[in-house]
């Protein structure tokens, strides 16, 4: 599971965790004051840079390991593009040829709009918005594009050109059942015409050898209809679909295995390589267990078909890669949370039968990212908790990481002002300014370490993708958020030495969550739109439910002053109880596989938007120049070689521009045909 960043919307994002680290933060800020974090801003996007702190302290072998793993990640880049939409690679190649070869007038508005469109497509790994899922609308005409194609002798099917401007395949991931979860989704995971019932029937016939350890069926395949009209999987593996790119991934993973820090790390890499070569889901489970147990060493990574948010049915995993270096100082501080995971489980408001008797193997580290790819780039999470299989998490535990240098880059590039505009009063502002950083970081930790690791599914109940279907992702993210919210207002945090005033930290966290869930996250939507993205949905249904249920006791006031809306929490203790009540119900839904209750919760509170309030929020937000979405270029790792071709050192360079990196990636990591 990922925790996405909501810079300038919810997270104030922070550099430090414990208050007494302030001097370290000041020193780091002074040291990095010359670093230019902002690359550029266009449309609703701001592109940033991040630094790999501590790079020079790594041994040559560690640097080689990082380099090989980042190369492996980059080699799968085009898999993500093709997964997002079947014509994406054709479109990208055509747009890039125009961009690099056009000799005409580049001062005209149409050309400037073409450049912005291409950058938006690059950022989203395709023609659909990376977050909202809607097809990106060009701000130039079809006639202008056809003129560019002709001027640069670039070919692109007329049908595909039309798609860029019409309403065909308008939504990458559609979660509105009335439009058809598959029929309304452009994601390239299913052949057109396949019905939801057919998919469910297809996978219902697949039985794992051990029902208590179900395979992640569908995770690494596309479901197609063969010449006989029957459904079959096209497996993503060497020799199968995406095989050309996967062979490059395994080439670099083999090199990484050769410089692994220890045997457990090497053994895990060997299993990952075997998974890519065979497509075996049994091997995928074996790999995840081995990866979980490889906890020694300074380098770790994420690689594979992992998150299922892009599949409206929750089966298929998007390709991604993250390479990370342990941040020893911050990880030691965060370890306090993971060591007390059992206490949090024992003292949660869940029904006794839904609690885990033993929470095992929860590890939490703050890491320094050295490279990201696929589903994690350019738009990146700030926290990750894996693996996703519930039975593995229950039996072997999980790894949680906070991407420290990504959070650091957000903090150092952030603007100010939205808090003053949307906060209710001076007390709320003062709490946010003093406790916002630590509250955000603690919520991340509690969400990832305690939230995703908590609770258990009743015996005989299927996996959430089977029982909760298209609502599984948003219910899981909301459940983890609720765990964090419940414990953010708890004296245990102060007892553990994590905060100096638990009540004020909790008050600030509740203020910011309600403010964002009910109002400020709406700046990411176009007026009139419903909420589709899983995390946005969960923040609205969580905040909307407690707002409604608290009306009898006036727990949260909705106020209007000078035509502006504000939310004011009047009773934090009661709100804490409501968060606990909702958490207990959401865990029951997951534990019992109660689809109807889960659907009603999401549909009644998480989808529809108050259009009057939305219009107001958009109008109030116009004064702020920072884009609502942020992402990153990756540092470039450049090997230095001796005369014999041996690596003697690896240096870090920063790309000069977003376009430079995107074109470099297309040149160096394009291994797939235009249509797969």
If you had to describe this structure to a student in words, what would you say it looks like?
The chain is of the alpha+beta class and 676 residues long. The chain has a domain at 2-53 and 327-631. 47% of the residues lie in helices and 13% in strands. It contains 26 helices and 15 strands. It has a six-stranded mixed sheet with strand order 1-9-10-8-7-6. The chain is globular.
Sheet-strand content, in percent, reads 5-15%
Q: How many strands in all? A: 15
Tell me roughly what share of residues is in helical segments: 40-55%
Rg = 24 Å
Global morphology: globular
Quick synopsis:
With 676 residues, the protein is α+β, with helices and mostly antiparallel strands.
Write the layout of secondary structure elements.
Elements: E1 2-4, H1 22-31, E2 38-42, E3 45-48, H2 60-75, H3 77-84, H4 88-101, H5 109-124, H6 142-151, H7 158-165, H8 196-204, E4 221-225, E5 231-235, H9 243-258, H10 263-278, H11 281-293, E6 299-305, E7 319-326, H12 328-339, H13 341-346, E8 362-374, E9 381-386, H14 390-396, E10 398-403, H15 404-413, H16 418-422, H17 426-451, H18 464-467, H19 472-488, H20 492-495, H21 502-518, H22 534-549, E11 556-561, E12 564-569, H23 572-592, H24 595-607, H25 611-621, E13 629-632, E14 636-641, E15 647-653, H26 658-668
Parallel strand pairs: 3-13, 8-10
Antiparallel strand pairs: 1-9, 2-3, 4-5, 6-7, 7-8, 9-10, 11-12, 14-15
Helix pairs in contact: 2-9, 4-5, 9-10, 10-11, 17-19, 17-21, 19-22, 19-23, 21-22, 22-23, 22-24
